[in-house]
Amino acid sequence: MDSRASAKACLKALFEAAVAAAAPVALVAGRLPAPPAGRTVVVGAGKAAAAMARAVEQAWRGPLSGLVVTPYGHGVVCARIEVVEAAHPVPDEAGREAAARIVAQVGGLTADDLVVCLISGGGSSLLALPAAGVGLEEEREVGAALLRSGAPIAEINCVRKHLSAVKGGRLAVAAWPAAVVTLIISDVPGDDPSVVASGPTVGDPTTYAQALAVLEKYGIEPPPAAAKHLRAGAVGGRDGPPETPKPGDPRLSRATAIVLATAHDALAAAAAAAESWGLLPIVLGERIEGEAREVGRRHGEHALHLVGWQEGETAAAVLLSGGETTVTVRGNGRGGRNTEYLLGLALALEAHAGIYALAADTDGIDGSADNAGAFVAPDTLGRALAGGLDPVALLADNDAYALFERLDDLVVTGPTLTNVNDFRAIIVSGCDPVVARSGR
User: Fold this and answer.
1) For a Cys-Cys bond, which of 11, 39, 81, 363 suits 358, CB 3.0-4.6 Å?
2) Counting beta carbons within 10 angstroms of the beta carbon of residue 247, is it exposed (0 to 12), middle (13 to 18) or buried (19 or more)?
3) Beta pairing class for 373-376 and 410-411
4) Which of the four CATH numbers 3.30.365.10, 1.10.3720.10, 3.20.20.30, 3.40.1480.10 does domain 4-18+264-438 have?
């Protein structure tokens, strides 16, 4: 597949297949519990929360009410469930107010009542209810520093849980003794429900001491009120804040978590679509983490290795991967982890013919930019240099967005209303089919 246009169309089709596999409308209906004897309250947070709420409304038989919070621009019209939009990835007052209202809605329920909690990626920022003694601005400051640090999401959410009044199982405790059924679209490597959106209804195995260790690891000095709260929690005792509820806590005994969609599901759908295009799919994994540019470099080396096998019959393969890479921000440019991954990949490929790639976030937003990701072709570096751009310098300044914007190779979808995190696909032409099938 050497045509730039056909390769781009194919890669976009693979991305669309991955996103469609995680669409809430196709996932929610068959996983809802039976109506309770009492009330049904629907709450939730995340990039897919509004779309999930609408799917619940369409499938539910009986009365219900509730509130979900989703990022600005991700709302959809619901008839019985209120949808509030708030800031992501750094929380705002709208998110704080929505989180407080969600806690109030599940308070005072009985054992005859049911809470359906709709959780997807982005929920950590949207459920912005700080712990007592910690202000929203302090929670914002710590969260922003963690996002710049390159820390993996599990470490970021460990800290978030211990600065929150709602995350880390606390929402389920607030709903006790009602039954809580949480439906999850996972955006985290490994799909641990306690990590997705900082697990508001799931027992939390992490501790205050671990949260402090994360901040120390990345050289982050929290503001005084946040530091005081974390240190008091780590010391323990009657005067300190209580730990997050742990797995096995009796107040979580009526809470159930169901994962509806994962990166694995998205990649399986993309692999099936790839075969329909005559490509050999090679799935590198759905849990890939690490510095985005370095992952891009390694994947470029893998692609070049396949191209090296050109004796006899040749084939076109596509390397597929998911997960969540990270970016350690040292520069002043724009660009999320997928554009940074692609620029690292392009530099590793050195304009090799027959290799094309697309990387994008399945939520439609790469970091905080307006694109989902971008597209790389053999002419990417040459066109950039001809246009007066320095790819190495732009990468050093965390400004991959500028390069792909100038080349008109950004992938712009708008919010997809789901989120199973990064999607990456690399088409490699001219490889040995036996080697391609082995994935070596």
Assistant:
1) 11
2) exposed
3) antiparallel
4) 3.40.1480.10
Q: Looking at residue 434, what is its pLDDT?
A: 62
What is the token pair recorded at 83? 């949808």
Per-residue pLDDT tens over the stretch 154-168: 999 999 999 999 999
Task: Classify residue 94 by burial, with Cβ atoms within 10 Å: 0-12, 13-18, 19+.
Answer: middle
Which own/partner contact pairs does 15-19 have at CB distance under 8 Å and 24+ positions apart?
15/270, 15/358, 15/360, 15/362, 15/372, 15/411, 15/423, 15/425, 17/269, 17/270, 17/272, 17/273, 18/266, 18/267, 18/269, 18/270, 18/362, 18/420, 18/423, 19/266, 19/362, 19/416, 19/418, 19/423
DSSP-derived 3-state class of residue 175: helix
What phi, psi does 60 have (nearest 5°)?
A: -80, 135
**Three-state SS at 141:** helix
CA angle 300, 304, 308 (to 5 degrees): 170
